[in-house]
Design goal:
The structure holds 2 protein chains of 2 kinds. By secondary structure, chain A is an alpha/beta fold. Chain A has 17 helices and 20 strands. In chain A, helix 6 links the parallel strand 7 and strand 8. In chain A, helix 3 packs across helix 4 and helix 14 packs parallel to helix 15. The longest helix of chain A is centred in the middle third of the chain and has 16 residues. Chain B has 13 helices and no strands. The longest helix of chain B has 30 residues. The chains are: A alpha/beta, B mainly alpha. Chains A and B meet through helix 10 and helix 11 of A and helix 8 and helix 9 of B.
């Protein structure tokens, strides 16, 4: 029997009405890679927060390496040997590598005078020891995500962490970087560190974990169990509950494209920060077609979406919508012509969290809401039509005047879909429409996309989730560095699409 | 939180501010009973006191209503003071320089006031939406320019030769053009202010533009994706703010003052910001808050007669209220 690295007893966390963790007790043995698996909202990140002392549970206790931790004290957890690498990194992005590491180190260097050279000397060796080659003077913000993540991990290890929690470490990584990360985790395990990895993708869990624990709706449905004793179907059943994962959307039946609904000819945009601009993009979207756009995040997908939306003026090229040139037209005009959009970030771009639902659901530019010569509105009528839309899209809400932030992520996406899909549309631009959604909500979005496609509209689906793209796209474009580097038709192969995404030579 | 709860939450910081001030006055050796009686009499119960309260509530209210539009659009336009002065300038210029039949001259003077306020605010708005100039700095600086402009006009081109001494002013305008006497307000003024309140409410709460403004202020990114003309809406908010502040200036000239005076009401534009915030950024709330602060302003002028507390004591009270209310406001602002 291995000694215990982390144990918790009867952890309960309550966020308002929601019980994020319900009486969770478990123990992670030393020297293994533990995966904590669950859908969105299952309580994984809450779990990580409690273990690392960031969150104070309503009830329950945490023990790290045999030491009982005053709950809700991150310094105590750190002193006991537990550290966390957050999904969104914690080191200040404007710092140089060496400065950031020194800044976060538990034991600072002595001396009164700041000397970048001395700091660099101290960290050079440590970085070399783990094989990270990076210019210590470069700013964190300028580094690729995988390097930043390695530095975050090193930061934790430099504080003598013996238990390392990684919260969704694969979310921002390319497939090759994920492989590298997993190798690194195995090395750490062999050195006696206990990594606890929070994941929501089954494939990744199978690739890296020694044991699997599963959370569902705040409850521990599977305590850490050796992976070899589990079957894939058992894991997925435990994750999603009664619903079987086998019921997936039917494979799309392909209609012949009759006319081009949306066409990009030689579109180019300027680059912004680390995001490349578009280079000479040609793209056509036919009627009744779902065109998937694959690519590792930050390869021009945002520029593509904003160009189609009319938020970014292209440097060159021509954009037509339903046959007419809209290169010079604004977002409102394009919406009137039948373009609808589901933006990347539903919390800031999709809707206003602090506005009432009816303001969020009404479309303020579309012609169909022009009621007369006076630019006055009838709130009663707007709330009426809001109720109709919300009911049709299965949003659970109390009144149309409640604020957006009273709804869960899946419900918010339903609100956005309701607004965008309520009327007739010709082209739907859906950017990461299922990101962060649980299984049921994802399926709902896919069903709606199919329904829209079946009305003859075209859909441009931008996603970084290959499974999703393979599931519902009629055609897939791969973007890399602001260019379209490949077009694929079913049957898709993860290997060929994946290597186009990362630019690996075949 | 329901409306009543919100109202209570808005009054609480005022209560704390008043209590703190009274404690300070008591510690400084003043008789707070006479101070409280003095303020009550000056604002409410004394002869003509409530009229004075309304007289001062009027400019506060109009500037605050204008500020509301900018605040909703997420623009901190603190140039109400300058916009009001420019409004007064435009209005007095028409009243003095273009004599004509009253039924033409009076509306023209009002319109000129609104137009000057609109231009003054619109210029700041243009700099903001076109060049991303910081609106707080631009509107603050435009206040100083407006003060100096008024000062130049009242000591130069439109100087009243009869006035000697410190305060410079223009000559009195023709009494036929006056909307109210020097003792404060008149039915005409009240009706006009009522119409202004109604207009502000309709634009803010029942027009497509008003709702869009609010949306733009809360979620500019979402507004862009929905195709709202974010920059144009923000610019329109500046124009509205300037129009209302300019109207306040015009009313000062055509109403109580009867002329343009330098150094009159030098802080009213800033108190108006507090009025908007205390009024919970809603039109009815702003009306109530404006009357409250109008009462304080009226009390300032009356207090020295009945109490030994200098009138700057009320200024301290006003400042204290502003402090506590904005602290509360910032807490909500951050949470948004």
């Amino acid at each position: 029997m291995r000694p215990t690295a982390v144990r918790c007893d009867g952890i309960t966390v309550q966020f308002g009405q929601v019980r994020a963790l319900d009486n969770v007790s478990l123990a992670f043995p030393v020297g293994q890679i533990h995966a904590v698996l669950g859908q969105n909202g299952a309580g994984k990140s809450t779990m990580a927060g409690v273990l690392s002392g960031i969150l104070r549970p309503a009830r329950g206790s945490v023990e790290i390496c045999g030491r009982k931790i005053q709950s809700g004290q991150s310094a105590a957890a750190r002193a006991a040997g537990l550290d966390i690498v957050h999904q969104r990194f914690s080191l200040p992005p404007s710092f140089r590598v060496a400065e950031a590491l020194e800044f976060a180190a538990a034991r600072k260097m002595g001396g009164l005078v700041y000397s970048l050279r001395r700091i660099e000397r101290r960290w050079r060796e440590r970085l070399d020891a783990v094989g990270i080659t990076v210019d210590l003077r470069s700013r964190l913000a300028s580094l690729p995500v995988e390097t930043r993540q390695s530095i975050e991990i090193l930061r934790a290890l430099a504080n003598d962490a013996r238990v390392l929690i990684l919260d969704e470490p694969t979310a921002l990584l390319s497939p090759t970087a994920i492989d590298k990360l997993f190798r690194q985790l195995r090395e750490l395990r062999d050195q006696g560190v206990t990594p606890i990895v929070i994941l929501h993708k089954l494939k990744e869990v199978l690739a890296v974990a020694d044991t699997v624990a599963i959370l569902r709706q705040g409850q521990l449905v599977l305590p850490p169990t050796p992976k070899d004793t589990l079957t894939t179907s058992r894991i997925s059943t435990l994750m999603v509950g009664a619903v079987s994962v086998a019921t997936r959307c039917a494979t799309p039946t392909k209609d012949m494209p009759a006319a081009d609904l949306c066409r990009l000819d030689g579109i180019a945009t300027r680059s912004r920060g680390s995001e490349p601009g578009l280079h000479d993009i040609d793209l056509t979207l036919g009627q009744g077609e779902i065109l998937g756009v694959a690519g590792i995040e930050g390869n021009g997908q945002r520029a593509l979406a904003e160009t189609i939306a009319g938020l970014e003026a292209p440097l060159a090229g021509r954009l037509t919508l339903a046959g007419s040139d809209v290169t010079e037209r604004g977002t409102a005009a394009r919406r009137v012509m039948g373009l609808r959009m589901v933006p990347f970030d539903r919390m800031t771009e999709g809707l206003s969290l602090t506005s009432p639902l009816w303001e969020n659901v009404q479309s303020w530019v579309a012609e169909r809401f022009r009621t007369g010569p006076w630019p006055l509105i009838s709130i009663a009528r707007m709330q009426e039509s809001t109720r109709a839309i919300l009911d049709r899209f299965g949003v659970s809400y109390r009144t149309t005047t409640q604020r957006g932030d009273t709804l869960s992520g899946g419900n918010l996406q339903r609100v956005i879909l309701g607004r965008e899909l309520a009327g007739t549309l010709k082209v739907l631009l859906a950017a990461q429409p299922t990101r962060g959604l649980d299984f049921a909500a994802t399926r709902f979005v896919w069903q709606e996309l199919h329904r829209v496609r079946d009305t003859g509209a075209g859909i441009i689906l931008i996603s970084s989730d290959l499974d999703e793209l393979f599931e519902i796209s009629d055609r897939i474009l791969v973007m890399r560095g602001g260019r379209v580097v490949g077009t694929f038709t079913p049957p898709y192969s993860a290997r060929t699409v994946g290597s186009a995404m990362v630019g690996a030579a075949e | 939180m329901n409306r009543v709860g919100q109202g209570a939450a808005a009054i609480l910081p005022i209560g704390i501010a008043v209590a703190t001030c009274m404690l300070l006055f008591a510690l400084a050796g003043y008789d707070i009973i006479s101070v409280i009686l003095g303020v009550t009499e000056g604002a409410l119960t004394g002869f003509g006191s409530f009229q004075q309260t309304l007289r001062w509530a009027m400019p506060l209210l109009l500037i605050a209503l204008g500020f509301l539009f900018c605040l909703r659009a997420g623009e901190f336009n603190i140039g109400g003071q300058g916009q009001m002065m420019m409004g007064g300038l435009g209005s007095v210029a028409v009243a003095l320089l273009f004599p004509g039949p009253v039924w033409i001259a009076m509306p023209t003077a009002l319109l000129a006031g609104m137009l000057c306020g609109l231009i003054w605010s619109g210029f700041a708005g243009f700099l903001k939406v076109r060049y991303h100039a910081d609106e707080v700095i631009v509107t603050l600086m435009l206040n100083f320019i407006a003060v100096l402009l008024v000062s130049w006009v009242t000591t130069g081109p439109l100087k009243d030769p009869a006035v000697r001494g410190e305060t410079a002013s223009t000559p009195k305008i023709d009494s036929a053009l006056r909307l109210g006497g020097s003792d404060g307000i008149s039915p005409t003024l009240l009706i006009l202010v009522g119409l202004a309140i109604l207009a502000a409410w309709v634009i803010a709460e029942r027009s497509r533009m008003g709702v869009q403004l609010r949306y733009v202020g809360k979620a500019p990114q979402a507004a862009r994706w929905q195709g709202m003309a974010v920059r144009r809406l923000k610019f329109q908010a500046y124009l509205l703010a300037g129009t209302f502040a300019g109207l306040a200036g015009a009313f000062e000239v055509l109403g109580p003052n009867g002329r343009l005076v330098t150094g009159a009401t030098p802080t009213i534009g800033f108190t108006a910001i507090v009025v908007t915030i205390v009024g919970l950024s809603r039109v009815p709330g702003i009306v109530i808050a404006a009357i409250f602060f109008g009462g304080l302003q009226a009390a300032i002028l009356f207090l020295p007669i009945v109490s030994d507390l200098p009138s700057s004591g009320i200024k301290i009270l006003e400042g204290m209220i502003a402090l506590f209310v904005t602290a509360e406001f910032l807490r909500h602002w951050r949470q948004r």
